[in-house]
Amino acid sequence: MSILTIILLAIGLAMDCFAVSVCKGLTSPHGYVPRYIKPMLMALLFGVFHAGMQLIGYFAGSLFASFFERFAPWIALLLLGFIGGKMIYDSLHDDDDKTHLADFSFWGLLSLAFATSIDTLATGVIFIPHPEVLWIAVGIIAATCFLFSMTGFVLGHLVGARLRMNVNILGGVILILIGIKIFLEGIL
């Protein structure tokens, strides 16, 4: 698995973090700019949870390595296709309960970190045939989620209500395309 593929996967997985962070930035008070400790904690939690979920998915999947090695291309296609499709579906259907976005409590941030990283748990099995790049992938995914979270918060805070882009659709499309690429590499 190439570094470019890992980076694209990380970007796709970080889109949920980015979208949530933009919303957090939109809902943060205007005098909030000097105090970036809570947004940095949010970004750090997002990165750590993505790294942890990636490792949990990998090691849980490793228990069934012979099965996964044979079916890894199919599993990757199904998982990434499902996750990407779910991201696209969810982004096209409005969530009426947006009150949780303004909450910067530790438990609120922890629940968002878990929710945005659950997709990464499923993608951990993709690295079973590629254990040599696991730790590189974990680092890239964690760093990308951190950077996208901070960037999303800053953009949301600075741009405000004028930001009208649906990043979850882009993230979903990227994940589906990566799933197709991994599938084609595995069967050819």
Structural write-up:
By secondary structure, the chain is mainly α. It has one domain (3-95, 108-187). The protein has six helices and no strands. The protein has helices at residues 3-27, 37-62, 65-92, 106-123, 134-159, 167-187. Helix 1 (3-27) runs antiparallel to helix 6. The longest helix is centred in the middle third of the chain and has 28 residues, at 65-92.
Considering the chains and any ligands shown, give keywords for the structure:
mainly alpha; 188 residues
Write the layout of secondary structure elements.
Elements: H1 3-27, H2 37-62, H3 65-92, H4 106-123, H5 134-159, H6 167-187
What's the short version?
The protein has 188 residues and is mostly helical. The chain has helices at residues 3-27, 37-62, 65-92, 106-123, 134-159, 167-187. It starts with a helix and ends with a helix.
